[in-house]
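This protein record is not my work; I was only asked to verify it. The record follows directly below this note.
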Amino acid sequence: RDLPTEVEPSVRSLELLGRAQKEMETRGITAVPVWRFGDDPGKLIADAARELGVTTVMIGTTKRSALTNLFRGDVFRTLARRLPHECHLVISG
């Protein structure tokens, strides 16, 4: 099955990211929400971090099924391998 060529975040997602970005800015943190779509999220996130030269990547977790947790674990492992060594990985649950 082919992936769509364009996928846009929902209005709710944009609102949530906007609120989070504003909250972080009040604390002196510059947040850069990144929206990418593909079949290897860990690689996409690591590539974006490298391209943007960020110092920290923050990933959220949710309470989901064991399958979702397994998938997320794979994303975390990929990020741990692919993020630049000077880049921190923060996991928020």
About this structure: Helices lie at 11-26, 41-52, 66-82. The mean pLDDT is 81. Residues 66-82 form the longest helix (17 residues). The two ends are 31 Å apart (CA to CA).
